[in-house]
Write the structure tokens for this entry.
Amino acid sequence: MERHFDEELKGLNEKLLKMASLVEEMISASIRSLIDRNTGMAEDVIKSDDKVNMLEIEIDEESLKLLALHQPAASDLRFITSAMKINNDLERMGDLAVNIAERSVDLIKQPQLKPLIDIPQMAKITQQMVHDSLTAFINKDSELARQVCRRDDEVDKLNEQVFRELLTYMMEGPKNITRAVDLILVAKHLERIADHATNISEDVVYYVQGTMIKHHIEEKKKQ
Amino acid sequence: MAQIEVKKLNLSYGDFHALIDIDLSIETRMITAMIGPSGCGKSTLLRVFNRMNDLIEGVNITGQVLIEGNDILNHKADLIVLRKEVGMVFQRPNPFPLSIYDNITFGPRVHGTKNKKILDEIVRTSLEDVLLWDELKDKLHRSALRLSLEQQQRLCIARLTAVKPKILLMDEPCSALDPVATQNIEELFNKLKNEYTIVIVTHNMQQAARISQRAGFMLLGELVEFGDTRRIFTAPADKRTEDYITGRFG
Ligand SMILES: Nc1ncnc2c1ncn2[C@@H]1O[C@H](COP(=O)(O)OP(=O)(O)OP(=O)(O)O)[C@@H](O)[C@H]1O
Ligand SMILES: [Mg+2]
């Protein structure tokens, strides 16, 4: 049976998807601006931040309104609480894309320190994780969500690799330090974005199956 | 230990099969809520627990209902004792047309308490149980019918606690009350569950979610799902439960 409430849930879902595609776009543009050394593109990302912040507030208010007015239960309740958490993760991801774009603006002003290899690779996996976590949400696909969680380690390892390599550049000469630190920060931001994609995936599993997988709580409860 | 253990319970009114293969375990000193659409058998199930269906002609019951290990469906079960142990509160408050004092002492008197001092003490503790003592201690000889609906419902609960039952059955106990009175009665249930096992039937799903620790969903005489209230209301296992509590039913 179609309920009036379903219309309002659909509205919330649409807003969240709008926010998701905006944030995905920001992440991809922030990395491209660095690789293509395109300052204009980086500045666009920085400007998008306001839009994301506005959307975050709208989605939050909308969710609270639905919780208060309809006192939802079961999958409705899980949908709204997950939407609120995903909203929060998306907003943080938007901030991180802005941080990457800011590093990019600084880096472009100086000659390239080294050809970028690991960072684009990290960015590729991270963007795929973000995309899959959101697809999992849209399609209520908890299997895809669980796959995203498993990929978090890859990104962590690449981040470590980037850090070690850039450390050697810093030791080679003090003039390398600023650029190396900027690149280390870019990798760090990417790694945080992947963490948020993992959070979203965990929320998707809860939304779809009603089971908590955060912090490996299932295994801990069994012990 | 479970306070009430129901095993393969079936009940029919003549040809009509009203309860079908019910298996259920109701835990001691918890609030268990039964929900489900009108006519699914909630009241019928509740009435089994103190054998109120015995009064209805053409009822046929099979299976077992163990209360503290004794099968109450057994013909040798002592109904007077059973109804003392298992009290029922109804939708509309139904105080006797007697004084507040006599309403409460009615049960203890039936069970043989005559001593005035003891009866006075029972009146005090029972009214304290339902948080009415301070309000009513100077009006004990007024007619119970002059009380507000909320006070009457509290008095009906005090009338039960006066004989120290183990189980309180409540069939939509708040449906005649306004939201404030309902909230007050819910607070009272929360206090009573420290001493009594409570089984409540309610049409108000938010109420079931707020006050109970265990919840069961019934449909067409079957117990579709039973378990931890938090789970039932956040992640029900059965599609029919999900549809009912999210209002998709119909
Ligand atoms: N004395 C009776 N004789 C015949 N059928 C009855 C009798 N009492 C109840 N029934 C039928 O048994 C079914 C279950 O009734 P019951 O009163 O237990 O439902 P309920 O879940 O409490 O409904 P409600 O929410 O409307 O109070 C209904 O179909 C009802 O018509
Ligand atoms: Mg009923």
Summary: Chain A has one domain: 2-222. Chain A has a mean pLDDT of 93.
